[in-house]
Write a structure and sequence with these properties.
The relative contact order is 0.11. The chain is 70% helix and 0% strand. It is built from ten helices and no strands. It comes from Microbacterium murale.
């Protein structure tokens, strides 16, 4: 009777785990400064084993950025973002953006650090601009209905709102006392109370 071979060496990462670790390495060292060799070394894999899972470092970046942007874009299509008064829809989108940021913290952090140095990064930045444009339309509609102040330009208001939301990646820790819902309440209290008409 033969004894089953003991598997040695290579850690048993699945594709998801490799992607998550790659995102962390990209955040720590910067995407451009991360080589396939250093990524493989961090994972304890050979370069060929890494290539078995993903065709390139760029493919890892593309999937990570798509996960972040896809999650944000999905918020714009939820019923709360498409039905009802514009002010309520804007609130839903901001809550949803905070939720995505908390749920996909590393992925959104990476998204916010890309600078357009490759086709993949430029495509992600284009999607971010399109997202911002859709939120700006929503801010403008909320201004038109009188639920938020009209004396601040809609595009400026959008940038200020998402400047606040996006800053969360710099200080939020999932182990802290606040979850996504409480954090969203705080963001909305600070952000919207300054925009709301009284």
């Amino acid at each position: 009777m033969s004894v089953p071979a003991v598997r040695r060496g290579r850690p048993g990462y699945d594709q998801r785990q490799i992607l998550e670790i790659a995102v962390q390495v990209f955040i720590e060292h910067g995407y451009d400064a991360t080589s396939v060799s250093s990524l493989a070394e961090r994972l304890g894999l050979s370069k060929s084993a890494l290539y078995h899972h993903y065709a390139s470092k760029e493919r890892l970046l593309e999937l990570a950025l798509d996960e972040a942007m896809g999650s944000l874009e999905a918020v714009l299509h939820e019923p709360g973002a498409t039905v009802g008064p514009a002010g309520d829809r804007l609130e839903h989108v901001l809550r949803g953006a905070v939720r995505v940021l908390v749920d996909k913290l590393a992925f959104v952090t990476l998204l916010l650090r890309v600078r357009g140095n490759s086709d993949v990064e430029r495509a992600a930045l284009e999607r971010r601009r399109a997202f911002d444009d859709q939120v700006t339309v929503l801010v403008r509609a909320a201004q038109a209905e009188g639920s938020v102040r009209a004396d601040i330009g809609a595009s400026v208001a959008t940038r200020l709102l998402f400047g606040m939301v996006n800053s969360i990646v710099e200080w939020y820790r999932p182990t802290g006392p606040e979850g996504a819902a409480e954090l969203a309440d705080d963001v909305l209290a600070v952000a919207l109370d300054g925009l709301r008409t009284h």
